[in-house]
Every structure is written in structure tokens, then in C-alpha cells.
């Protein structure tokens, strides 16, 4: 077996989700998936459009021209981000987008900054391909420690930002992003920023600010999974400077060739009709955020850092039941209380006393019941 693969941590949700799925009646607040899907009437209309030979072959590696154009218009209209269609590359999900980008920019041994708590698949990818993760811990309130960042930026090739954050559920303000851009420009002006903005529609109390507004050397990654309720269709994209498109396509052609043809056609269709359902998805998720925030705030042994976006809240436990923490706590919750969360340790060593709650997985009634089970476990255990 490859020594490189052996050195990469196992996907942290696989065993936990298996245990959760095998436990009758378990409510999962673990995996970050939407409880909603596109309206049935739209899917029926779409199904009538795809009985066509052109739906079954490969598409151009960077994606269907009409989808790339639709994404370009979407970014301009919704986020004031200029991204010409020929600088958009369509991928089977945001994880593939990250792999395309990181393999295009970095050579083995290059240093890449991850802000902790980080998205664990980003750390896994860096380890897998021989890049050196430089872990910069965020403060307990998820703000940036600019002095620490300055000290860590020497000779880095890229800085990875997940905004809004997974697992933090925190969205950086325009002021914070501007300050971050200033520090990068001052200390590491040749470094790239890779900004994963998968949850760009789920800022509940402010606008979303793309990092590229503040730092020109930014490659933006996003996904259809959350905003359009289609995680199983596997559709993402990235915006990269034109002179790097062809280079990044080398990765795509070698690994997956292109995103699925039918998925790309669905993506273009959903963008065209997004006004029929997107606001409803966002409002439903915001209501779940409110439920989760109120329920978790009422548990005395939890400290809640700021949470204003995405699908997540990342509470810290001041006193653990039965001295359980980490995966021990997560498995105990599934086994004895039939509720699943994700332990904080998988998002960085600093966060072992935290755990991630995903509040978008289920409807409001199931969410409330799951949080009540969590309360009983933490207070009775």
C-alpha cells in the first residue's frame, strides 16, 4: 500500500454515518447535506428536456458553454463578481474543484495555509498530494490572528479560506477580508488565495463578500449542492485566471474528464429557474439556524462561538458527560441517545472540546427533537 495514502487520515464521517444509518430512529445532525431538493414540478419539466442523444456523451472538459455562461451571469448578478465564462471550469463537486486548483498551483513540498478549524477534506488533499499544510488557528470567536498569520506566511504558495466556514458556521465581514488581503499582499504578495465559497447564499444576517473583491490573486470555488439542493448530482465549479484554465484542465481530463453531462444540463436549468425556489431554501435554512441557536444556547454546559452562516454551529463543551469527548462522545450519542454530531477534533487539534451540529439536514420538527436528545445526553450523561 502507498505510504502516502497510509499517512492520510481516513474520511471522518464514514464510520460515524454507518453507525448512524444502522441505528433505527437516529436523527443525524452530522453530515452537511440539505433536507430540501428542487421542486418536483421543475424536475418533471427538466426530465422532458433530456430525452436527447446529446445528454449522453462527454461535454467539453471545462463544461458546457451554456452552463459556464449561466454561472458567469449568476456571479455577476448575485455577488458582483466579474468572472468571464471562459474563466469558469465546471467540476463534479467542489472537492474536485479544490483538487484541480491545488494540483495546478502547487508542487510537492509547497506550503499551503489552512485556517483551523478547517474543512477536513482540504487537509486530506494536501496530505495526499505531498503539500505541506501550515495550520493557522483562528481565535475562539473565529476571528483572524493577524500576528500569527504574518509569522506563518513565509514561502507559502497558497492560502485556503472557507467562507462561510465549515465547521464554524461563521462568515467573515468585508472588513476582516480586506485586512486579510492587506496582510497577504504585504507578507506574501505572490501567494494565491483559494476561497471556497460553497455556502455563499447562506449568510443569514449580512451580504456575502467574495474574497476576490479584496485580493486579485483569488481563485473562487463553489458548488450547486447546498444552494440548489442537489448534493448527489455532483456539480461544482471554480473561477481561475484565463492563463491557468488550460493547465487546470490537465487535472480534470486525467481524473474525471468532465462533470456528468446530464448534471450540467440540470445546473443550467436550475440557474434559469432559481427564483422559484432558492429564496425558500435560504429562508428554511435560516429558520433551522434560529431553532438550533436557541436550543443550543439554552444548554448550560455549552459555549457558543459566533455563528451567522452556512449549515453549522460549532459549540464548545465546558464539562463532558462521563468524561467522553471526541469520537467517544459521538458514538455514545448515537448508541444511547440516537442523535449524531461530528467531533471537533477532525477539524484541527485545537478543537477537541467542540463538536459540529448541522442544522440543515432535517426539517424543523426533527431538528428540535434531535437537539432535545442532545440536551438530555449532555445534562444526564
Shape: globular
Radius of gyration: 21 Å
CATH architecture of the largest domain: 3-Layer(aba) Sandwich
Classify the beta-strand content into a percent band: 5-15%
Structural class: alpha/beta
Number of helices: 13
Mean of pLDDT: 94
Low-confidence runs of at least 5 consecutive residues: none
What is the third-level CATH name, the topology of the largest domain?
Answer: Aspartate Aminotransferase, domain 2
How would you describe the overall organization of this protein?
The chain is of the alpha/beta class and 381 residues long. It has two domains: 3-30 and 278-380, Aspartate Aminotransferase, domain 1 (Alpha-Beta Complex), CATH 3.90.1150.10; 54-274, 3-Layer(aba) Sandwich (Aspartate Aminotransferase, domain 2). It is 41% helix and 14% strand. It contains 13 helices and 14 strands. The protein has helices spanning 3-6, 13-22, 40-49, 65-79, 94-105, 120-128, 146-152, 174-187, 242-255, 261-272, 278-297, 326-337, 364-380; strands at residues 27-28, 88-91, 111-116, 132-137, 156-162, 192-196, 218-223, 236-239, 302-303, 312-313, 316-317, 339-340, 342-343, 355-358. The chain has a seven-stranded mixed sheet with strand order 2-8-7-6-5-3-4, sandwiched between helices. The protein has a three-stranded antiparallel sheet with strand order 10-14-13. A two-stranded parallel ribbon has the order 1-12. Strand 5, helix 8 (174-187) and strand 6 (192-196) form a beta-alpha-beta unit. Helix 4 packs parallel to helix 10 (261-272) and helix 5 crosses helix 9. The protein is globular, with a radius of gyration of 21 Å. The chain starts with a helix and ends with a helix. The mean pLDDT is 94.
